[in-house]
């Protein structure tokens, strides 16, 4: 057999959230795929390991632009189909987001509402952004009855269990015959042989993509039986906006700080105090919760805070910049990456003209970029 025939069609570098999904989809389309991940099969080195995995395009519209909201909405619809194909179950719900605030922070509420209404398309806001007053807060979320006099219910939003997604994708990779290389770091000077390389290293791609930066996020995971929140709750606050995302078995992810910088060191005392006291202020039952973990990671972020698919003009596609929206948007981003990677493999995109045509006709045109440092003339 010649060397070309022995090569996989695709080498996917970085097996966090995006790399796993891309590799699994490519293998599902019948391609030979190899995946290289510096960490373990559980995904403990990925930002995806720490994330709360809320799928909240409308709540996020308070600070995200329309492309992200639209990607989030389309991806929210795609998740159930995608999860149904995985060989292991994943906790997923579409039971909405509740937004509340303490009386002393009531000035935050109109700001939040204005931003959401300004940034999100009207068809999402209509019926998707419901004002609650008085007893309605407790009717919507019985655990918070009598604790908040006002709130917003965003009934269509979702969430899932991040670690179950990573595990189920690892099982899916095995099932589809992906050649997985766990605990294998790859750097740009020694890329594995493949016809097309897909770089999904998150912040680890910084040597190849210098404008990437990290935004540190810290979370607590606690076990709190008896509180019984039924959906993610966001607490508006001028300095410490917080969410509490309930998972199965009385597990809660409380997060998250948002700090510029690539500091991956453990959670600071200050952040732990802020997160835990804010949770306690939402429900005093968190005072008896058991702290399972305090974790930090960095969100891979581009200067415009948008995700991007960057083609080098030859055989490498980079997928990055998922920032704080990875779970929320990855089905659509990965789908675009898979389609484009297929076109690189079979030669439908081989020069900049073909790339421009592809970009123009793509569903998510705004994702595509040409690496002008390396592009073909
Ligand atoms: C605190 C926190 C909370 C979050 N909450 C949410 C949320 O509620 N909802 C949401 O949608 N998103 C959330 N996110 C964002 C989400 O986690 C990220 O957007 C997503 O994980 C990015 O996916 P990725 O695959 O690009 O990067 P990652 O998940 O970081 O994966 C990159 C992978 O590449 C590997 N790698 C790096 N360098 C190399 C190398 N040289 N060789 C081989 N492998 C390498 C890493 O080990 C890692 O596994 C949160 C993130 C954080 C930090």
From TrEMBL:
Instruction: Fetch the SUPFAM superfamilies from UniProt.
Output: FAD/NAD(P)-binding domain
Top-level taxon in the UniProt lineage: Bacteria
One Pfam match, given by its short name, reads DAO
Q: Which reactions does this protein catalyse?
A: a D-alpha-amino acid + O2 + H2O = a 2-oxocarboxylate + H2O2 + NH4(+)
Q: Does the keyword Isomerase apply?
A: no
Query: What region holds the FAD dependent oxidoreductase domain?
Result: 9-337
State its cofactor: FAD
Q: Which Gene3D superfamilies does the UniProt entry name for this protein?
A: D-Amino Acid Oxidase, subunit A, domain 2, FAD/NAD(P)-binding domain
Which is a GO BP term held by this UniProt record? D-amino acid metabolic process
Q: What is its EC number?
A: 1.4.3.3
One GO MF term on file is: D-amino-acid oxidase activity
Keywords attached to this Swiss-Prot or TrEMBL record, sorted alphabetically, are:
FAD, Flavoprotein, Oxidoreductase
Q: Which InterPro entries match?
A: DAO, FAD-dep_OxRdtase, FAD/NAD-bd_sf
The family database entries (PANTHER family) matched by this protein are listed as: D-AMINO ACID OXIDASE, D-ASPARTATE OXIDASE
Protein family membership: Belongs to the DAMOX/DASOX family.
- This chain's protein is named D-amino-acid oxidase
Q: Which organism is it from?
A: Paraburkholderia sartisoli
**Source organism phylogeny:** Bacteria, Pseudomonadati, Pseudomonadota, Betaproteobacteria, Burkholderiales
